[in-house]
Amino acid sequence: MKEETIIKNISKHISLDEEEKKYFLSILHYKKLEKGEILLKYGEISKSQFFVIDGCLRNYSIDEQGKEHVIAFACKDWWISDLYSYITETPAEHTIDALVPAEVFEIMKWDMEKVFERIPKFERFFRILFQNSMVNQMRRIRQVMSVPAEERYKVFIKQYPDIYLNIPLKHIASYLGISPEFLSKIRSKIAHD
Q1: Of 60, 96, 144, 177, which has the highest C-beta tally within 10 A?
Q2: Of 36-40, 146-150, 175-179, which has the strongest mean pLDDT?
Q3: Minimum mean pLDDT range among 40-44, 48-52, 63-67, 87-91
Q4: How far is it, in rounded angstroms, from Cα 49 to Cα 129?
Q5: Is the pTM of this model over 0.85?
């Protein structure tokens, strides 16, 4: 069942024959995570990409004042990594951890290179993922800069319908670029409307 989830995700962009599926599945490393468990720590070099089978992960940084800044969430059927660290092989500027108990498949960078050589169409798949990631990040930056907080929250609810009630308010507020108190007021207003 877990393997079917990732194959279904891949099938959105490329088709694999049975031998290609078998090879790809052979390089995956299954991990079960407890709430709060760290997949990538600030300062480590990202050597993996992760596919979320179940649960929810967050990618965040901490500034000099100790304030967390949530960059992204990755829930069931999403991919996550610190792409800058992964691509440049430099220390990660973010931490990735599990907000709730989660299950992931890990793909190590060296295994990914072997997949690209053996099954070249995977380069297309990951190019599409990276492009989608870039588009989403650009949209998110624009929203933080120019869209009112209430509208950003409504977009968040649509984007993350399975988690917005199950993760701490402070993480959602950080992602939206507002205080938890202000987010609480927005939630109350929406509930009364």
Answers
A1: 96
A2: 36-40
A3: 63-67
A4: 11
A5: yes
